[in-house]
Amino acid sequence: MDQNVERRIRDRAYSIWEEEGRPAGRDVEHWLRAAQEVAAEEGAPAAAEDAPAATPEAEAPKPKRARAPRSTTAKSTTTSKSTTGTTAKPRKSTKNG
């Protein structure tokens, strides 16, 4: 591959990567897209051998982490009231007079 063409593909792939928010593991996809765009600019079909060798990280997405199971009891944000039905009585004053 021509060094100038490879540089253009690399620069375009980098631009695509930045435009998409710099996602991890999509380098091959960005490279192939850039190769197609550069080839279209030159009027030649993009060759599959222009793509970089796939890395194990790029072949399959990482599995998502398992979430902890949710509690089946509802959490209360208020203080609980007495369930006995009794109410507190005010204290009597101990002052003499």
Rg from Cα: 33 Å
Shape: rod-shaped
Give the terminus-to-terminus CA distance. Answer: 108 Å
What's the tally of helices?
Answer: 3
| Uncertain regions spanning at least 5 consecutive residues | none
- Series of secondary-structure elements, N-terminal to C-terminal: HHH
| Averaged pLDDT | 76
Instruction: Determine the structural class based on helices, strands and strand pairing.
Output: mainly alpha
Q: In percent, how much strand structure appears in the residues? A: under 5%
Secondary structure: helix percent: 25-40%
For the secondary structure, the number of strands is 0
Major sheet size, sense and barrel closure: none
